[in-house]
User: What shape does this take?
Amino acid sequence: MYIKSSLFFAVVVFVAASSLSDFCSAQKSNPNPNPSQLKSRTRPVIPFRHVTLAAPPGMVYIPGGSVTIKYSSSSSDTNSKKRVSLTSFYIDKTEVTNQQYRLFTEWVIDSIAVKNYLKDEKYFYPIPENNSTADASEKSLENVMSDTSKHDSLNFIQKDAVAAPPAAPVKDTTSFAKRRINWSKVNHKDIFESNDDAIRAKIQPMLDPEGKIRQDLYMYTYYYARALGTNPKAKVGDIASYTLNVYPDEKIWIRDLTNAQVDILVENYFTTPPFDDYPVVGVTWLQARAFAYWRSRASSSYEWIADYLKYYRLNYSLPSEAQWVYAAGGDMKSGEENPESNELPPISDSTAIVRDTTIHDSTSVVTAPEVDKQPLSPEDKEFSAAVGRDKDGKFLENFKQDEGKYSDDGGTFTLPVMSYAPNEFGIYNMVGNVAEWVLDAYSPSAFAFISDVNPVLLYDADSTEAEAMKRKVVRGGSFMSNARALSPYTRDEELQDKAHCYIGFRCVLPAPEILNKAVATRRKNTGSKKQSQQ
Assistant: This one.
């Protein structure tokens, strides 16, 4: 028996080896086999299993779903709403902070200083042998940046994007403007706080009489795909550019809060460490879009987050209005939406989170005074359900409680971006603190012509157009807003080139679509059929 088994096994091995040899010979004789010959070598389809996604640092993953968007602030208007579906996306947990936006402005001014004033070989990569120094502005949208050094503190990868040429630069005799900067050799303080007389002499034209960097030099060019507009020569989808000053308006506090004592905010809010974690304000819609473009170019590789992301090209942007409303819907603790009014279901004791009344900053720890449960103004009582409270009755949003009452929520002006508790998606301050720019152009009748899947209303308005064409959507309410503005269904608008002390922004990033359990590969359920046959 043993001999017969061994002989059978030997025959099987011989036959298999012969078949493999014949197959290999056939491949050599026929280098272009037909599909039937390749069938045996095709990788089988991998059954789908439910998986989850890692999010980039500082962001959360929002799974796809549906949401009803309300386009009218009138509770009696039940027609201006639309149900839409969204694919998955990432969104910032917090509004963009002063520290994050300051990194952007420092990058812009450092680029201008290095390329147009310092012009020192030590800041650049060596010139290739073919002497290729093509201007970055002539490259494709995906390849505008090329350096890959990483900024550890903010998880940004600083790269060589496009800074607009400054006013009256030093004469360019060596084409430094077209060279790639080696950002590992560049340090903002080493340039503008240097004790080196040679460096100080070169950057002197960049300083004002007080020794501060001239704010008119913060010019930056970003690129975008054209949308609809009035320019008859422009084609939708073509790559266009826009150059603007990206430095925020530090005096916006005086402009918005007239006859108010706000000197401390004017002098310190954007530039000093105690305000690092506060939301950046004084930024227009155009500046916010420029930041998102720079952030995309500075983080164009994502495999360090998760290996599968190396296959994707992802770009940051402002959230669409639909994405913002969907993400803000996590503030509705009951999970139900009520777009036919401006109200949210009240927070229940079973889901309430006790607020931490300790305020942390970089220099001290201060305990905020306890406050009793405070009523809203008579005008806002009908919107009381939109105001989150913890189980002790304390407010969970930063807003204006009544005429002259700003501090019952623990703060008078803006607060650090991680104040209070996050919503059910893990996002902080989607309502209150600062209102937020979104990507959409403003139109009261947008519901009539936007798509019902991943909708966004884009319109490229130039400086010559009427103000009505330059309006962009603002969502969320701010520390200056009353309770009725805290509903995710309340929308507002502002001109794209106008900034305020109460408007900030956050970014989104497309996420790979993750299939849910409903489409998971599984066996067909035949139990009911067998029972019927019996």
About this structure: The CA atoms of residues 290 and 445 lie 27 Å apart.
